[in-house]
Structures are given as C-alpha cells and as structure tokens.
Amino acid sequence: MLYLVVVAKPANAQLSEQAQDVFVALNGNDASGDGSISKPYRTLKKAANKASPGDTIYVRGGTYTGVKDSVYNLHGTVSQPITIRPYTNETVIFDGTGADIGRTESIVLVIASSYIIFDGFEVRNSSGRGISTYESHDITIRNNNVHHVQSRGLSAAGDTITLENNEVWQAVLENEKGAMGSGGWSAAVSANGRADSSWSTNIIIRNNHIHDCWGEGIIPVDSNGVLIQGNTVHDTYSVNIYLSTGYGVTVNGNYVYATTNAYNRPDRDYPAHGISLASERPSAGTGAYMNNVVITNNLIVGTGAGIRYWQSSVSDPENSYRDLKLYYNVILGTHRAAIYFDEVGAGFNPPSGVMVKNNIIYAGNNGATLDIGNSEAWTFTHNNWPDGIPGLTGVVAASDNFTAPPKFVNPVIGGDATGFTLQAGSSSIGAGTPVAIITDYWGSYRGISPTIGIHEYFPVVLDEKTYLPLLQKNDR
To answer: CA–CA separation, 340 vs 331, rounded Å?
Structure first.
C-alpha cells in the first residue's frame, strides 16, 4: 500500500522568484529525483516540500493504488495559488483500494491550507470519503471525477471554499438499498461546520453533476453564505438538495430530477424530494433556524415533492423558517405536492415572509399542488398554475396568478433543460413581476416585465442606462 502524506512549507515560506513546475510520477524517486520532468519525485509529499506560492505540482499519468493523500499546511497566496493537477493530457487516478481509510477519512484530504487548487483527478474506491478540505480557506476543488466511495464524495469546511465542475456518483455506498435504516447516512457533496463548532462561510457548490448516490445529493449544514448554483442533481436518496440549519443560502439555476425508482427510500414509494429545508439540531439566536433562503431559477421535475419543509423533532422555539423567496422555478411531474411544507405548530416561532413569485407550478401526480401549513406566512403573486390555481385562502396576498399551458419547447424529464424554454405565444412571457433576481437559468438578464419560469424569453442586453433603473425597480 502506498501512503502519501503531503507536508508543505509553512505559510510564511518565501515566494519563489519565478513559478516552477514540480513533477510526480509512478516511476519517480524521492531520494534521487529533483522534481523535474526527467527526474520526478515519487510522492506528493516530496513535491509539496519543494512547492512555493505560484507553483504547479504536476502528477504524471497512471493509477496510484492504495493511496491516502493528506495535503497539510500548504499555502499559496491570493495572487499566486498553488495548483495540483495531472500533467497535460494525462489521466491520473487516485484509487483507495487496499488503503486503510476510515469512514470519516478521505483518499485526498486538504487541511489547514489556503489558496490551493486541486484540479482534474479521478478519485475512486474509498472505504471512507473521496476528496475533503477542512480547516482551510480559499480552496478550489474542480474538474474531478469522484465515485465508488462508501461515505461522502466531496466535503468542505472553512471559509471561501469552491467545489465546481466535479462529477460525483456512486457515493454513500454504505447506505446502498437503504442499509442504514432511518438515518445517519452521508451526502454525496456536503459543507459542514468547523472543528471548533463555528460555522463555515462563503461556500460555493457550482456546476457539479451529482447522480446515482445513496445519500442526499447536496447538503450545506452549519454554513452561512452558501451558493448552490448550476448543478445537475438526479437519482439520489431521500433529497436531492437539502438545506439544514443554514442562513444566507441561495439555490439558483439547478436542474433536479428523478428518472428511476432505484434510489427510493424503503419507507416511500416515490423518489427523493427536489429541494428540502429542515433543521436537525439547534442553532439559537436568529429567530428561525432556516432564514434568508432564496430558491430561484430551478428546474425541478419528477421528484418526490418539489420544494419541501420538514418540521424536525428539535423542540427549540426557533425550529422554524422565515424570509424564504421562491422565484422563477419550474416544478413539474412531482409525485407529491409541488410545494409541501409541514406545519410549524404552537410553541415555535411562527413562520413569516415567504414570497412565491414568477413560478410555473404543476400539480403533483397525487393531484396536490400545495400542501402547506402556516399559510398566513405566504404571499403568492404572478405564478402560472397550469393545472389550475390552488386554494390560496389564508395567505398574506394572492394576486395576478393565472392558469395557462406554458408551451414548453420539448419538456422531457432528464432531457436537456432547453426543452423547458418557452415557445412564442406563451402566456408566461412578460407576465412576471420584477424581483431582486435579475438573471434566468442560463444567466441572461431579465426584462422589466420578466418572463415567468426559468427562461427569459426577451433577455436584455444591459448597459448602464438599462441596468440601474432595473435595479431600482426590483424589490429587495
């Protein structure tokens, strides 16, 4: 078994006069190598000892079997990050087969480090986790293929962590076919609190493809300032995107769907929910565990419920929600109600400030469009309900809602998202109301009279004269 431990230069290491390339290869030698392409090192540990801010550690192609890598105390700078990547056009596989990796350990661990980019590897066959970064800041983990891991695929804790353009699949195999029973499984991709129990901050989970996993797809837990954007998440267990105990979370432009019953929980006859909110442990001091959450421009099709709130068993009065914004989503073909929120009962802070605007919302396959408690917290305006406007009695306000076929181009569950763009003549075109979200699913700018749903039919090319009035008109 090969065990690689990266012990890098301390944070105050002197900047190299000129960035250099440091090489690692299967045929390298730590004793006689010098890190050049002709005389590479054998391990990342040796290469990192030589690396300075601005350097690139190139790993030559091949399968590194029995590996458990730990990148510890490795520091680039904001202008000179250190990049770890395969050499040009070569494939590098970190394979954990045979390595002594516990459930909470990883094939690749970046810890107590900063300004590191880990880019372009295949990581597979872990008896624990895939790639993790903890107690670090300004870390980017991108373009990796992580699969066949028993626990988490990607995991992050710290400040300013970006997980982007990765594929994670066949993760959380410890829970295959619901083996763990009623709970305790991991997520395919997660953000978590830090070792000192403080929350992680400024987490970006963007443009990843997460699928065929036996845990939730994405979970930020104990995190403040989270962006979950542009991900494709499908065919996972229980929930595709799960927000648990988090503030300042934006879920924007994700494609969430189910095409199979293979990952259904044994206690359910339907696939994972699309986007769920809940609080599984106390975090007092803000009035509501889940607050300041924006869910916008998401395409949610074929899931259990579309957008779901679960009132967990935590008995603290702050186990509640407030200030939720549901804008420009398309919810179609769900197995349960499109929007399904448990009632927050007496003894808990009452929910408030829920805005539902500019969505296209179909009834679920069970005939229910809405199943919400605490309707007095909700406002519904400018939504298209193709299967009929549901009863909105008791809500704060309900105006300019209507019923019309959206006229999607070619709506296929699991098909290309462009199938959910609109044809000419759709009643949803120009029928929305301006809100503080000014782009659509594809990043095009919304008009002053925006289109309902994920697609802006008449996108605006913005200059200063257009942009500033639009901002002023949008609500806050």
So the answer is: 12
List pLDDT tens digits, range 305-350: 999 999 999 888 989 999 999 999 999 999 999 999 999 999 999 9
Q: Does the pLDDT value for residue 440 go beyond 80?
A: yes
How many CA atoms does the CB half-sphere of 423 hold within 13 Å?
Answer: 8
* Residue 183 lies inside a defined structural domain of this protein: yes
pLDDT for 8 beyond 70: no
CATH number at residue 184: 2.160.20.10
How far, CA to CA in Å, does 46 sit from each of 57, 110, 421? 11, 16, 52
Among residues 433, 406, 403, 400, the alpha carbon closest in space to that of 332 is found at 406
Identify any residues that bridge with 416 across adjacent strands, giving them in sequence order.
none
Whether 84 maps to a domain, the answer reads no
Which domain covers residue 151, as residue numbers?
98-473
Domain presence at residue 269: yes
A 10 A CB-CB count for 53 gives 21
What total number of domains does the chain contain?
Answer: 1
pLDDT at 14: 45
pLDDT higher for 310 or 67?
310
Q: Determine the pLDDT at residue 472.
A: 53
Q: What span, in angstroms and rounded, lies between the C-alpha atoms of 273 and 216?
A: 9
- In this predicted structure, what is the pLDDT of residue 46? 84
pLDDT of residue 72: 86
Residue 11 lies in a domain: no
| 474's tokens | 């949008």
**Kind and range of the H or E element at 49?**
helix 44-50
- The secondary element (H helix, E strand) that includes residue 57 is strand 56-59
Which neighbouring-strand residues pair with 332?
Answer: 301
